[in-house]
Design brief:
Elements lengths: L13 H15 L3 H4 L3 H8 L7 H9 L3 H7 L2 H7 L11 H10 L4 H14 L1 H8 L12 H10 L8 H14 L7 H9 L4 H15 L5 H10 L16 H14 L1 H13 L3 H10 L5 E4 L4 E4 L1 E3 L3 E8 L6 E7 H9 L7 H10 L6 H14 L3 H7 L10 H24 L4
Antiparallel strand pairs: 1-2, 3-4, 4-5
Helix pairs in contact: 11-13, 13-14, 15-16, 16-17, 16-20, 21-22
């Protein structure tokens, strides 16, 4: 059945008919014989001297798709064609109610309607539901911290830095305040969008502790959106000469920091992961990776390189394996168990005008993507699991491919003067 037969053609007004006529003539190359009319009638319609009849309109609609129909006509014209909007501007409420009833069976339509109602009729909805914001005072507590760390749904707050930032923000802007409509508006208008996240976490906590009803919880979570992210595209220049000078400086002046930088450059690891590996390096430990049914030593070495299992997953930024050269292995064994304070490292780097540690991961990524044709292998080496879907078979395949390609990465590093 043609899509247009669902339309009430009699309700499509003259102006909409002329728009559709012009569209098929100008874009589809339709001629008088295609529409079953004479050349003189064709010309009179183009000059708006003759109305497009229902029969001609049906032929026009047979030349276009539903998407084209929606693109050519305005929303009001389409509503008239569907019989929802009458010629006098009144609404056919029966049809509208039928559409609303469809929302119970169509998840997308339901979400569209809910978002529209919340955005445009927020106060009416609140009054209709009888929502009252109970007199609840915001207080940071150990119980709330425990909720963030272990009981919160979705992404839990696991790092000390994030937890400390959240606590500082909460105590500065929310501590002692009472849950109210004024507070909701205050959070919505606040320039620091992270405050929205803290507020939402606390509302989830209150709901978890049964201190607010489901209706209030749903309304607040819909009204206060989470922090949005704006894609900021900007040129990012990395001077390889500066990286080489930094590596040479550390090799001569501070070997412990040098092994850390070398590990990050060769593996693409983040600073905190490299520090952890240096402190807890256990090459002979035997581990089991249950997800892929694999028993192995943490350290596996080949002719020119090694890979080491770190095994950081979950809510933190992941770091599964690290690949590095056999020369770096000797340095790791020499400084095994060493503790490095990130603040001390940053101060040393700033004092001597050296390249910051985060640059090394970017350099490593550029080399990986230049040398390895399969970008999934490069992502796997840097534990970019958010960009991958890995089954058990796929995991083993990526692991073996990484072992094959990694010597090429070391060759490129030597070619660039980083050996």
């Amino acid at each position: 059945m043609e899509w247009w037969r669902k339309l009430d053609i009699s309700r499509i007004d003259d102006e909409a008919r002329y728009k559709l006529f012009d569209y098929v003539v100008n874009t589809k190359g339709v001629r008088p014989r295609d529409l079953g009319i004479s050349y003189s009638s064709f010309c009179r319609i183009r000059q708006r001297k003759q109305r497009v009849s229902d029969e001609v309109l049906k032929r026009i609609l047979s030349f276009i798709t539903k998407e084209e129909f929606e693109r050519v006509l305005s929303a009001q014209e389409r509503l008239k064609a569907l019989g929802i909007l009458r010629d006098d501007g009144s609404v056919d409420y029966g049809l509208v109610l039928e559409i609303i009833a469809l929302a119970s069976r169509d998840e997308y339509l339901k979400n569209v309607l809910l978002r529209f109602v919340v955005q445009n009729f927020r106060e009416d909805l609140r009054r209709m539901l009888g929502l009252t914001l109970t007199h609840i005072e915001f207080r940071w507590s150990e119980d709330f911290e425990e909720f963030l760390r272990s009981r919160k749904k979705r992404k839990k707050i696991l790092t000390r830095e994030t937890l400390a930032y959240y606590r500082n923000l909460f105590e500065k802007y929310l501590e002692g305040k009472v849950l109210s409509e004024e507070l909701v508006e205050y959070v919505l208008r606040h320039p620091n969008k992270w405050l929205r996240n803290i507020f939402r976490h606390y509302i989830q906590y209150l709901y978890y502790r049964r201190r607010i009803p489901p209706e209030t919880f749903g309304w607040l979570m819909e009204v206060i959106p989470s922090r949005s992210y704006k894609l900021d595209v900007r040129p990012y220049t990395i001077n390889l000469d500066d990286v080489r000078k930094t590596m040479e400086f550390l090799k001569q002046r501070h070997e412990k920091y040098y092994v850390l930088y070398r590990l990050m450059l060769e593996s693409g690891a983040r600073l905190k992961h490299a520090i952890q590996v240096l402190r807890t390096f256990s090459p002979d430990e035997v581990i089991e990776i249950r997800e892929i049914d694999m028993v192995t030593k943490r350290l596996v070495c080949f002719e020119k390189h090694c890979r080491y299992f770190v095994g950081i997953r979950g809510g933190q930024k992941p770091c599964e394996w690290l690949w590095f050269s056999t020369e770096t292995l000797k340095l790791l064994e020499k400084y095994r168990g060493a503790k490095i304070d990130r603040k001390d490292l940053w101060e040393y780097v700033s004092r001597h005008n050296l390249v910051r540690s985060k640059i090394l991961r970017k350099v490593s990524w550029r080399i990986l993507t230049e040398v390895i044709p399969d970008k999934d292998v490069a992502r796997f080496i840097q534990s970019r699991f958010g960009e991958l879907r890995i089954s058990e078979a796929r995991y083993g395949d990526l692991l073996s491919k990484a072992d094959v390609w990694y010597p090429k990465v070391l060759e490129k590093l030597r070619e660039l003067g980083f050996s």
